[in-house]
Design a protein that fits this description.
By secondary structure, the chain is α+β, with helices and mostly antiparallel strands. The protein contains 8 helices and 10 strands. The structure holds 2-amino-2-deoxy-6-O-phosphono-alpha-D-glucopyranose.
């Protein structure tokens, strides 16, 4: 697998070889990787060279280093299409996964300037603020804070938001959800995100903001979410 006569750097050859093993499933998600020492001895190359190949694959998200445990093949990312206005519950069920939410807080607060603007309300109008950890098959995927006008969506309870908000809005209240404007940007997980998403220092997250509207044009929700960038990949269909 290593050709020392090749003009290609040795770390690059090893990286390419390991990438191939991950892609063809010889190394499966969760598998431990042999140690740097084992590779170095087996291939008669330096540990530094092995480390460089492994570090590149860690940076590319294909391997994960766990303190005191070693290096493992990363879980495959969930691919999420950005073409439809779906809920977390629907997305996970469509994949055959079980969605669950842990409710971190649920209260009615007076809208501040930004929330009032996003929901087209007067400042200080009462809005629900709920923070949820969204899990798929018990793995935390995203941390989400939703703001919703308390006069528009009535009767919200902790039980409702622990399951599906969209289901309640559509099926119980009979409101028609229309469209949303969404933005996405990269960030490094802050302390709160690290705690709830169980990721380590320096881990990347995708910050998503969604402003959802009812079919009649009324703003329905303003949502800020942090998705684990090591577990999520978003795809979009584009036409020329
Ligand atoms: C996604 C969206 C949120 C929306 C939520 C509703 O996570 N990013 O804007 O509030 O779905 O999900 P559910 O119906 O599962 O509560």
């Amino acid at each position: 697998m290593i050709d020392k006569q090749s003009p290609l750097p040795i770390y690059f050859q090893l990286e390419h070889f390991l990438r191939g093993q991950i892609e063809n499933g010889e190394l499966a998600p969760g598998d431990p990787l042999p140690s740097e020492r084992e590779y170095a001895e087996q291939l008669t190359i330096s540990r530094m060279t092995v480390r460089q190949a492994i570090t590149n694959l860690v940076n590319a998200g294909l391997l994960v280093r766990q303190k005191g445990r070693g290096t493992f093949v990363a879980e495959q990312k969930l691919e999420q299409k950005l073409s439809g206005l779906t809920s977390f519950t629907e997305d996970m069920k469509a994949r055959g996964m079980t969605p669950r939410s842990t409710l971190l807080s649920f209260e009615i607060i007076p809208a501040d300037k930004k929330i009032a603007e996003r929901l087209a309300l007067k400042k200080h109008t009462p809005v629900y603020e709920m923070k949820r950890i969204r899990l798929a098959d018990e793995v935390p995927m995203a941390l989400e804070t939703v703001y919703i006008s308390a006069n528009l969506v009535k009767g919200l309870t902790e039980k409702v938001v622990a399951s599906s908000l969209y289901r309640y809005i559509e099926e119980e209240l009979g409101l028609a959800i229309g469209h949303a404007v969404q933005s996405m940007e990269a960030a490094v997980a802050n302390e709160t995100e690290r705690t709830h998403l169980l990721v380590s220092k320096g881990a990347p997250v995708l910050l998503i903001e969604r402003n959802t509207f009812l079919k009649d044009g009324k703003p329905l929700e303003y949502v800020k979410s942090s998705y684990r960038a090591d577990r999520y990949k978003f795809t979009i269909d584009i036409n020329r």
